[in-house]
Amino acid sequence: MATAATTPVRLLMHFFSFFLLFFVGSTSAINLILKNSCTYTIWPVLLSKPNSPQLPNPSTRFFLRPGEAKMVFVSPPEWSGFLWARSLCGTDPDGNFFCVTGDNRGKSTTLEPTLTATLVDFTITSVATDTQYEVTYFVSLMYGFNVPITVNPIGGIGSYCHAVGCTLDLNKGCPDELQVVYGDECVGCNYYSSYADYFDGLCPNARTSPYDDTGTFACVSADYYDITFCASNFPSSSPPPVRYETQNQESDKKNKPQKPMTLALKYMGGSILTVLLLVSFKCAVKFVRRRNNTMAEIQLAMSLNASN
């Protein structure tokens, strides 16, 4: 009985998740979807920079098994922070959490990895109005490399609104003196400025120098950012042409009378959605009740046969 009752609830939960994905972007500055395409578990870290609004612990402490994904909402305006993945994590004999790569000593206050990690840098700034935000982002190899990572903006605008990252496994060709070895396998590649050409040659879209800004990208009003660890292919990104409007153009757009059909769709959209939700819920309830009644009839028939 309990299993049958949970079926419509699960359907509604999936519907609301779908609804949030496409409509929450207007109220959140940046929405991240983290995907683990690696063959092993990773422990992502999302931390704020100094003097930036801090994120709650649920946004910074979690893990992703192979094939899993998680949506993270970063709503504070004027926020900046780092994202990276830790690998080969566990506890030592004293019960302290540690990771072979990307380790930050298990502390949410550590501002950067203390061990080798592929790093993503995010900065959010307001544009024009408080309802639009520009997100500047880049992938950095100046802390080394542990896992491939790509950042792909979905739905944003801007001439530099493109996918960025590195899909090659730099651990395979890492120079011996830079290798982070676990067992007999290279699981990380440390960075030194004298080897910048190695990193830059294999990942030209990533930043390999503090003076290099060629790998910096920016998007305005992206719906969300698709971040994939161990992506097999570099995502294609074809943003629309950048569109900047003057104050007069914005004022004319606001004062321009809308067509009757546009107004009808605008004000009826919420009502239609509400009706659809109610109808879906009622249908689900009827389905469960009909199924429960059928089960009761079957049980009654079985009991009568048994008595005969």
From TrEMBL:
Q: Which N-terminal stretch is annotated as signal sequence? A: 1-29
Protein name (Swiss-Prot/TrEMBL): Thaumatin
- The lineage's top-level taxon is Eukaryota
Against PROSITE patterns, the record matches this protein to: THAUMATIN_2 (PS51367)
| Disulphide-bridged cysteine pairs | 38-230, 89-99, 161-219, 166-203, 174-189
Q: Name one Pfam family in it.
A: Thaumatin
Q: Which UniProt keywords apply?
A: Disulfide bond, Membrane, Signal, Transmembrane, Transmembrane helix
Which PANTHER family does its entry note?
OS03G0233200 PROTEIN (PTHR31048)
| Gene that produces this protein | TorTLP23
The UniProt family comment states: Belongs to the thaumatin family.
> Where exactly are the transmembrane stretches of this chain?
264-285
On whether Transferase is a keyword of this UniProt record, the answer is no
| SUPFAM superfamilies according to UniProt | Osmotin, thaumatin-like protein
